[in-house]
């Protein structure tokens, strides 16, 4: 199953929220960039939390990206 770019971006936001990322922001770049549709940014309170967020995103999205 593949996701369109908005569904993928929302999935990433959901995973980040589950991993308690802070200040999560989904930016729509479709009107200003030919390289990306969306940009997701957030912060973590520690390196350990950041790694958990990264791994969570990787685990939850790898099947949709293949």
Topology:
Elements: H1 5-18, E1 22-28, E2 38-43, H2 47-65
Antiparallel strand pairs: 1-2
Write structural notes for this entry:
The protein is of the alpha+beta class and 66 residues long. Helices cover 50% and strands 20% of the residues. The chain has 2 helices and 2 strands. It has helices at 5-18, 47-65, and strands at residues 22-28, 38-43. A two-stranded antiparallel sheet has the order 1-2. α1 (5-18) packs antiparallel against α2 (47-65). The protein is globular, with a radius of gyration of 12 Å. The termini are close together. The mean pLDDT is 92.
| Individual helix count | 2
Mean residue pLDDT: 92
How would you write the strand order of the largest sheet?
1-2
Low-confidence stretches: none
Overall number of strands? 2
Give the CA-CA distance, first to last residue: 9 Å
Task: Give helix and strand order, one letter per element, not per position.
Answer: HEEH
Strand residue content: 15-25%
Radius of gyration from the alpha-carbon trace, in angstroms: 12 Å
Percent of residues in helices: 40-55%
How does the major sheet shape up? 2 strands, antiparallel
Q: Structural class of the helices, strands and pairings? A: alpha+beta
């Amino acid at each position: 199953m593949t996701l369109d770019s908005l569904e993928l971006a929302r999935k990433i936001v959901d995973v980040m929220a589950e991993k308690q990322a802070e200040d999560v922001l989904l930016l729509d770049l479709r009107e200003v960039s030919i390289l990306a549709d969306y940009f997701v940014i957030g912060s973590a309170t520690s390196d350990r939390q950041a790694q958990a967020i990264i791994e969570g995103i990787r685990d939850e999205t790898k099947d949709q990206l293949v």
